[in-house]
User: What shape does this take?
Amino acid sequence: MIALFFAMKGEADPYIDALGLKGAGDISGFKIYSDDTYILCVTGMGKVNSACAVTRILSLYEGKIDIAVNIGTCAGEDVGRTYIINRICDIDSGRDLYPDMLYKSPFVEISLHTSDRYKKDSVFEDDYGPYVYDMEGAAFFISASNFLSPDRILLFKTVSDPGDPDIVTADYCRSLLEPSVQDITALIGDIVSSFEGDPYLAADTMACKYSEELHCSEYMRNDLNRLIRYALSSGVDIASYIDERLPIRDRIEGKKVLEDVRKMLL
Amino acid sequence: MSGKCSYNPTFSHVYVEEQVKELPLTKEVLSNLPSSKIIYIKHYKDIFNRKKQDYRAQSKSRSLILAANKGNLIFKGSDMCQDHGNSRFFYAAGVMNCLFDCDYCFLKGMYNTADIVLFVNLEDYFDKVKRMLSDGPMFLSVSYDTDLYALQGIADIPSRWIDLAKVNLDLTIELRTKAHPKTFVPLGNVIYSFTLSPQKVISSFERGTSSLRGRLDAVKEATDAGCKVRLCFDPLIRVRDWESCYNEFMDTVIYGVCWDKVYDISVGTFRISAEYIKKLRRCCPMSEVTEYPFVNSEGYSKYPDEIASSMRSFILKRLPEVIDEGKIFCDSDGSVFGDR
Assistant: This one.
């Protein structure tokens, strides 16, 4: 599943509409919209809200979320421009955070500064180069990092104002984010489709089957699993080899077959 | 969804510590990577040591980190490493991780990332070595934690070490590689050390490295230039048809090398710290090399003794045809040791 996080409903609306997501009530007070592929959460503004929502959703769906994405508006110089974030500076702690930048993207990369305070000046450059500014990004990244690898955490920010938060309304957010919805969702979909499945699935399934046939103890099961993984990785038809020795009456006979398998393989 | 995503090319992103941006090696590297996105950072560990990194994903688009090493620069050689009879055996940790992607590499067990750190404060390394030389001659492996020649397209670090060896004759450096170096400098205290593997092993498990033919050509160029050359039959890898695989390999090597010009040889089977094997398997799942049911002994994962011994013997019985036995060194489990 793809988890999308927005601070404000106005930012989420273009995605809810474009993806046809349905309201799914709330989880611990956070509004949820979803279908079979997406879970979209409106976190509320600020770092604490973001951290709580991300942690709640990702722990509730642990193991089912492939990627977490934070999308929203930010302060910056180039109003209307959408960026992908390559560095996040948590202004309050001074900590720097880095998503992996593995995938080609149509968006320009930039640094993001995050703080709970509104930005009310128009300085958008520090010693490390230009940046945009928001109130959630760092908390989102830190929280998501407890669940996902840094290549599976993405942030997209669209500049809403050059340090003038009073002009940001729900309708304004919607109009700013709408034009990039298609590119962002296409990119996320492409990234997720490039994720590889469990490389051990075939071996583990086979081990599960034959551990029954061989009447394996826990120790024997681990041993069998290791031998099956090695056999499959080196192109040996271990299934036929074991099948020829079935049925196996009891664990003693199973142990003997396991030893035969080892001798054949090594 | 329109299809699978494209990965950024290797080193599309270069993270540069603020403190090193003016160093000559930083400028050299960046000039060789004109299309890369440069991101300035405070400390390399902010990237390199992030939690939950996915090696397999990162290895498809590695990033480069340029940093200053303010910690230990020179380390004492590990027990798992052959010292070739050198009592003061050290290695320089000038690069963390390797651009080559060998399934069996201990670096995968050691680090949590596929990204590469290049320490650009080379002068600090040189100063440290000069100070250590005041205690006596030393043997220094400068490409132990990496393959420096894999990076030769972006930085000529081997030449800088060779220049240091040129004026410090008590310093012997070893440059170990699976690449084909562009140049060779014949010096008595510089050893060019080539890891040789069957082409089948190279194709399957040593991604990005030079072919066996390429490595043998490099060996010839080095011996022709009058360089000291070490050949490393290490690690020997237990592939399914290993006897025919290594037999064919030894035929190729025996006829492809000018043996009287070879300085020495090392032979060793694959072995790795038991702590690393789990991570290694996570990085290279379902690889014939990593999935082998190793035995654990004294903190190391290795082939069972009788198998390791038969593999070593298989190589060792061919070598006396071409080289003095006193020049052959074995890993710590081996029975043959050089006479240096």
